[in-house]
Design goal:
- 22% of the residues are buried.
- This protein has helices at 4-14, 31-58, 64-89, 100-105, 108-128.
- It has one domain (31-128).
- The protein is mainly alpha-helical and 129 residues long.
- It is 71% helix and 0% strand.
- Helix 2 packs antiparallel against helix 3 (64-89) and helix 3 (64-89) packs across helix 5 (108-128).
- It has 5 helices and no strands.
- Keywords: Endoplasmic reticulum, Membrane, Transmembrane, Transmembrane helix.
- InterPro entries: Emc6, EMC6-like.
- It is a multi-pass membrane protein.
- This is ER membrane protein complex subunit 6.
Length: 129
Amino acid sequence: MMDPSMMQAQMAASTSNPESNDLSSRSQLFSPAVAHNAQIVEHVRGLMSIFAGAAAGVLGVTGIIQGACVFIIFHTLTSLGLLTKIKLTGKVSNYLPTKWYAFLVADAANHLLSFLLFWTMGYTLIHIY
């Protein structure tokens, strides 16, 4: 992931004003780097939903509650893995304009349909045909 705070430090050095130290760190992040980081997180979570759905289908998970549990477990594990990678190199707010607890549940609804598609496809291909 790109570190937008490096650009933030360069911008702060060039426009340092002792009276303007109340600016939030979010407004000083380098926009292309933040967009790149958000795109990487989106791709990782999209792949997670595809593989989790296929795994749930192949394993024969049936029922909406069991499927939701599989999705929640995979989404949480993926988010914790991404957080661990980010935490090893700095704070989450240095890379994305969100807090760590909001990062855990972000975009879950966006990837639910991909999970459902691959869950039903995996189940159908393995257990029905």
